[in-house]
Structure to design on (853 residues):
């Protein structure tokens, strides 16, 4: 008898659609064209961002507004090391990840014991601090002009960047998957459901929450570092609240608290963004209205809708995954 | 010497407005355990309204302000009814929804009001000689007086009315609400509306001095949050003290340390409070 | 009888209200202690303080030779104090099986993965939730939620178990089952029990000793027979009859 939920028992079978998607993505550089390959890279960046934010918000119930900021920490750390010390991005990015993890640890240890609201407030403040520092330390960060950094690996090639991003996204998703199936994942969900009860059963609530925050922050650092070295220009847009909002909207629209939701949401919004780019500034307004509609009326997101539709047709929810 | 006094005066004026704005956040947190991330956007909205009512309708400054605050109050009631009420008991969704709302409002303002700063006409011109040492704008002094008046009114309501008693009891301990036989839905509605109206009041008072643009709301919200954490969640007198402290620290810090980092001082305070006294200066909540 | 729990002068204020004032008592190993008192007497607050969900303003609590006064709930749980909640707190979106599994994972030395299935099933069977293992806990009715809390608490291998109104809302048949379970926990499993209950008949029948709280004060301690005859206790309860 398997221990876990019936939804999870079909482990191998569930992997098939993911492998199919991965196989499809692997063929992209061959036929997609330069422009859309660029979009696919951005899309993968958002997949990592939304999935790791969802690990925190959707599975431990903590809303962080510093996720974009941690991506910025990853990007700027690695970028500055490359510019000032000539460090290779493949060494700089891991250092950026460590910096993001360390900062999340400090921030988490500081405010998580005080409860969820404090985390949201403090992370919002952190993101603003970072913006101020980047703008003020112009000599180091080049402020709003952006910091010119070397390409991630060898000569500039979108295919290289794409494969690296794809590998990183796959690793991030696998780690999240593994975490959710582990004892830690069970404790994440227990803490989200009822922290007082979890506490009374021996679950160290604060430590579990900080752990989720650090893992999630480190993943954002990785995504940001790779993204920065793909763009070769790191601007304050990466750690901005605008980008934070996009990540949040992707998770909400895709379906928070499901494994597939943020992936679906990120790719969906990135493709949609390409089509409504001509509307300029409006697209953020449209995204935010759609996100509000989902948050208010369809908290299960697209994945929740799809799951309900499949359930009505009597087939097991394939994509719902570790919901 | 006169420089120092001027910085202090500036600090007090700004600090009192911070306090006013923070009272709105504190009211909603205390009663509903909801942080309104669209707080700053409502502040801005009231600023825009006061400018438009004054210019388009030709109203005097006072009627324009009152009307602007009333409009934001009604909007607050509507927001509570349509968006916040369905999230009762799920703090995470209320955070997400108010955050999305703030983004919607920012972008809507950009579309409706344009990216350029807007302000209503000053209520008063000229300057007065303070302490025989320096001249200080009459507009700022009047702002201070009005803000003090609104805060005094708020505390009067808090201590003299049924609603105020309920608010004080519930902010101290949520379970008291049930004991007092309070209808929580109605109290929540009123608290959210009033919280928004306080943001609006701060907005209309400060807009003549600091014109509004679509994106300054983030800073306004953050300042209010810092004040609330500094004063202690759910403590109203803490908001007043916290607001004054922040106003003074920012102005003195900018004058004597580094003006580029003026707004960083608030966050430094936030971090220090969380480190040394996480419940805030007047907080009751224990770890 | 060995002393397992000692409570010395603990008190707790909420804002201006004295919820609990300077309570002291001690509890022997394998004792079954009944805790009664009118609504708002501070019974649940006492549980919160012992379990570490809240910290006391004054006083000291020691358990099995450890000072547990300032410990958090997860730490007291790992030392062997388990509890149920008056207003049930299931992990609503987790299955019953997973609800119990959380307790096995939360232990100082988590139970090995391959042994958990059996252990969870056994505990759920014990409390009468056989066949509902895979239901989400949020779908259970009130009685089953209370049963689930008992199973979760037992999964932590407690030396002391704090039961907060496990009979409320049960019919007489279910009440009988629940009392059998309490007897089982106390006598066969050898746990020490503190039991808050409003159903007098039940608590008088099973308890070896009864404490009576009224308005945050300990007004009486004695055997069930003594309690039933004490004037202060009767008055405290008569006051509540109208409520």
């Amino acid at each position: 008898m398997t221990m876990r939920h019936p939804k999870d028992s079909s482990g191998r079978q569930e992997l098939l659609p993911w492998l199919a998607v991965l196989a499809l993505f692997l063929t992209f550089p061959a036929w997609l064209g330069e422009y859309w390959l660029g979009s696919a890279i951005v899309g993968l960046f958002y997949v990592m961002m939304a999935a790791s934010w969802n690990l925190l918000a959707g599975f431990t119930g903590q809303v962080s507004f510093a996720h974009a900021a941690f991506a910025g920490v990853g990007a700027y750390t690695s970028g500055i090391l490359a510019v000032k010390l000539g460090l290779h991005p493949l060494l700089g990015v891991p250092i950026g990840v460590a910096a993001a993890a360390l900062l999340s640890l400090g921030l988490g240890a500081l405010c998580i014991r005080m409860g969820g609201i404090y985390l949201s407030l403090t992370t919002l403040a952190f993101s603003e601090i970072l913006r101020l520092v980047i703008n003020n330390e112009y000599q180091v960060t080049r402020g709003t002009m952006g910091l010119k950094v070397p390409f991630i690996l060898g000569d500039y090639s979108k295919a290289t960047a794409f494969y690296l991003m794809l590998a990183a996204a796959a690793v991030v998703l696998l780690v999240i998957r593994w975490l959710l199936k582990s004892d830690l994942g069970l404790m994440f969900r227990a803490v989200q459901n009822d922290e007082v009860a979890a506490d009374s059963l021996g679950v160290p609530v604060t430590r579990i929450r900080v752990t989720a925050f650090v893992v999630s922050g480190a993943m954002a650092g990785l995504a940001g570092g790779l993204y920065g070295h793909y763009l070769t220009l790191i601007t304050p847009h990466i750690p901005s609240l605008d980008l934070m909002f996009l990540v949040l909207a992707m998770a909400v629209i895709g379906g928070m608290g499901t494994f597939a939701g943020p992936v679906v949401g990120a790719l969906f919004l990135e493709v949609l963004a390409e089509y409504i780019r001509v509307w300029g500034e409006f697209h953020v307004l449209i995204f935010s209205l759609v996100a509000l509609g989902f948050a208010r009326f369809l908290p299960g997101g697209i994945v929740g809708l799809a799951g309900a539709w499949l359930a009505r047709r009597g087939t097991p929810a394939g994509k719902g995954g570790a919901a | 010497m006169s420089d120092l006094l001027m910085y202090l005066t500036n600090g007090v004026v700004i600090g009192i407005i911070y306090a006013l704005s923070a009272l709105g956040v504190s009211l909603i947190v205390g009663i509903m355990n909801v942080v309104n991330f669209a707080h700053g956007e409502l502040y801005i909205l009231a600023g825009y309204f006061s400018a438009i009512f004054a210019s388009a309708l030709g109203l005097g400054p006072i009627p324009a302000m009152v009307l602007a605050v009333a409009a934001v109050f009604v909007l607050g009631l509507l927001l509570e009814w349509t968006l916040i009420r369905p999230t009762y008991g799920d703090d995470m969704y209320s955070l997400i929804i108010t955050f999305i709302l703030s983004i919607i409002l920012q972008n809507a303002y950009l579309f409706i009001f344009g990216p350029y700063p807007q302000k209503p006409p000053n209520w008063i011109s000229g300057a007065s000689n303070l302490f025989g040492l320096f001249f200080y704008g009459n507009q700022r002094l009047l702002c201070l007086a009005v803000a003090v008046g609104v805060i005094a009114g708020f505390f009067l309501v808090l201590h003299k009315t049924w609603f105020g008693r309920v608010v004080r009891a519930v902010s101290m301990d949520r379970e008291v609400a049930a004991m007092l036989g309070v209808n929580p839905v109605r109290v929540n509605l009123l608290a959210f509306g009033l919280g928004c109206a306080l943001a609006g009041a701060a907005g209309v008072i400060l807009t003549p001095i600091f014109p509004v643009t679509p994106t300054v709301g983030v800073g306004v919200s953050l300042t209010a949050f810092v004040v609330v954490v500094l004063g202690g969640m759910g403590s109203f007198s803490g908001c007043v003290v916290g607001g004054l402290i922040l106003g003074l620290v920012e102005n003195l810090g900018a004058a004597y340390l580094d003006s580029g980092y003026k707004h960083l001082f608030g966050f430094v305070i936030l971090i220090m409070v969380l480190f040394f006294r996480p419940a805030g200066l007047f907080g009751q909540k224990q770890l | 009888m060995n002393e397992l729990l000692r409570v010395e002068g603990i008190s707790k204020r909420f804002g201006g209200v004295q919820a609990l004032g300077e309570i002291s008592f001690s509890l022997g190993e394998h004792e079954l202690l009944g805790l009664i008192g009118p609504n708002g007497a501070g019974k649940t607050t006492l549980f919160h303080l012992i379990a570490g969900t809240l910290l006391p303003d004054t006083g000291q609590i020691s358990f099995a030779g450890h000072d547990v006064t300032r410990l958090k709930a997860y730490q007291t749980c790992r030392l062997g104090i388990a509890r149920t909640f008056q207003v049930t707190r299931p992990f609503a979106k987790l299955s019953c099986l997973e609800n119990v599994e959380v307790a096995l994972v939360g232990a100082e030395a988590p139970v090995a993965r391959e042994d958990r299935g059996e252990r969870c099933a056994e505990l759920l069977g014990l409390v009468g939730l056989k066949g509902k293992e895979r239901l989400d806990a949020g779908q259970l009715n009130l009685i089953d939620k209370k049963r689930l809390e008992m199973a979760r608490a037992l999964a932590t291998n407690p030396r002391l178990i704090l039961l907060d109104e496990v009979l409320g809302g049960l019919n007489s048949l279910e009440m009988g089952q629940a009392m059998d379970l309490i007897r089982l926990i106390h006598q066969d499993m050898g746990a020490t029990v503190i039991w808050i209950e409003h159903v007098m008949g039940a608590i008088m029948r099973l308890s070896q000793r009864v404490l009576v709280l009224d308005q945050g004060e300990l007004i009486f301690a004695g055997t069930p027979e003594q309690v039933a005859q004490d004037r202060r206790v009767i008055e405290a309860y008569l006051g509540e009859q109208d409520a």
Residues 148 and 229 of chain B are 21 Å apart (CA to CA). Chain B is about 70% helix and 5% strand. The domain at 2-276 of chain B is CATH 1.10.3470 (ABC transporter involved in vitamin B12 uptake, BtuC). The interface with chain A takes residues 29, 33, 35, 37, 82-83, 86, 91-93, 95-97, 99-101, 103-104, 107-108, 110-111, 218-219, 221-222, 225-226, 229, 233, 260-261, 263-264, 266-267, 270-271, 274-275, 278-279, 287 of chain B (CB under 8 Å).
